Amino acid sequence: MLAKTVEEILAPNAKWIIGKNGLMNVHAHVCNGKTKVDPKSWRIPYQWEGVHYQDHDDEPYLLLINSGGGLVEGDSADFNAVLDADSRLLVTSTEASKFCKCLEGGTARETATAKVGPRALFEYCPDETIPFAWTCAERITRIMLDSTSRLYATDMISAGRVHYLEGEVFKFSSLLSEFEIRIDGRLFLLDRIAARNESEIEALQRFWNGAYHMASVYGYAPDLPADIENAVHEQVKDVEDTEVGVTRINNLVIVRILSRETWQAKEAMYNCWVALRPAIAGKPARPIIKC
Predict the structure, then answer these.
(1) What CA–CA distance (Å, rounded) separates 204 from 159?
(2) 250 Cβ partners below 8 Å, 6+ apart?
(3) Cis amide bond preceding 45, omega within 30
(4) Which tens digits make up the pLDDT trace of 66-118?
(5) What residue ranges in 134-274 does DSSP mark as E strands?
């Protein structure tokens, strides 16, 4: 399902409706020792406003801007990145992905696909996803790595607009969320949440055990230090009202975070970055400036 060529990833669909089918395709490549990012094609409501270099080094920061403010029934938003060998790129977003109500049973969909070349570094840190009441949300992230690539990625889902009026916790109609990592073409990890009806949503709520936000962190490098998973746990374990589990599979570290409040999940994710980024990217974590 994931065996796409670069040309297929970069091809807009002529049947898409302007304003309902957002698209952003970017290509990261090295030029004179510094990564440059070219927008290959895009369609509104995704906007291209260039990149900046927060760390004043060779790694650009790309802010994904969806001017639509959220996804309604029938909307789609597709982000695709191709990273050439030895390139380095951090991608984040300007705000949470908001999935609004779908009263006729249609789906709103958001996808992100990244093809990461040899020795390339990809840091993918979008804001959280918030499924509003009565929404049918589908979100899929697919990352294809070379065995020599490096990855730090986060994925966060909220139970709804927790503090909106009397709250909309677990009031969405359906949620399908997948996070897939392939290494050298082989499926290495598939994280899936499928809450497609009332009973499955109730089961998800029980699984979260009183938490309103679930975040996942994925860190990969071909040379991760021994016991770094323990260092991650020590860095994260004391965040207030947060449960954390850390697993290592070969050179992939996976962290699962359950929190009561948004800020707690984000603090835990940042603490993971503090522990993992020096080993993955060769530099310390620092707060991402979004302006």
Answers:
(1) 10
(2) none
(3) yes
(4) 888 899 999 999 999 999 999 999 999 999 999 998 888 789 999 999 999 99
(5) 136-145, 150-158, 174-183, 186-195, 213-220, 242-249, 252-259
Contact assessment for residue 255 and residue 248, using Cβ atoms and an 8 Å cutoff: no
Q: Kindly give, in sequence order, each residue whose CB lies less than 8 Å from that of residue 85, ignoring residues fewer than 6 positions away.
A: 30, 117, 118, 119, 120
| Helices H / strands E in the chain, number of each | 4, 18
**Residues of the chain predicted below pLDDT 50:** 1-3
Torsion of CA 12, 18, 22, 26, to 10 degrees: 50
CA distances from 202 to 41, 70, 159, 198, 270 (A): 41, 25, 11, 6, 29
Q: At what angle do helices 262-281 and 228-236 cross, to 10 degrees?
A: 150
Residue entry with tokens 């969405």 = 172
DSSP 240: T
**143, two tokens:** 């990352």
Domain boundaries, the chain: 20-209
